[in-house]
Design goal:
With 152 residues, this protein is mainly β. The chain has a four-stranded antiparallel beta sheet with strand order 3-4-5-10, with no helix packed on it. The protein has a three-stranded antiparallel beta sheet with strand order 6-9-11, with helices on one face.
Amino acid sequence: MYLDDDPPIVAGREIWGFPKKYAHPKLEIVKDTLTGTLEYAGQQVAMGTMVYKHERMAGNGEKTTATLSKTQVNLKLIPGVDGSPETCQLVAYNLTDITVKGSWIGPARLHLIPHVNAPVADLPVRKVIGAHHFIADLTLPYGRIVFDYNKA
């Protein structure tokens, strides 16, 4: 996950195990296209485009709420001073207080550019079948440890 704000970078790694780096993500509407770009160390490493508000998601946001409500799991790895995993846990969390204000699906494209310190192009993307854009208010509460590898 690439962010341009230090406090969420630190809290996200320490609390939920989200691996994060400082970069410059940008999401904007350019005429009829929702365009997302990611710049790392002054170089563009990703660009995604989606038709803006192409097809309203059926179910008035109920499907989006159901998707966002599912349990999500991260592998939280935090190395110790010697490089060994000081923290090695599966952390689960469920988003709460979800209010979907809009939800759309449509065609999309993705362009990933190789970079040594932002290896997003290493993801094995075979085919983009579409995209889902939504606007929602939600809360990311503290997670729970599902499994602690250091205590196993």
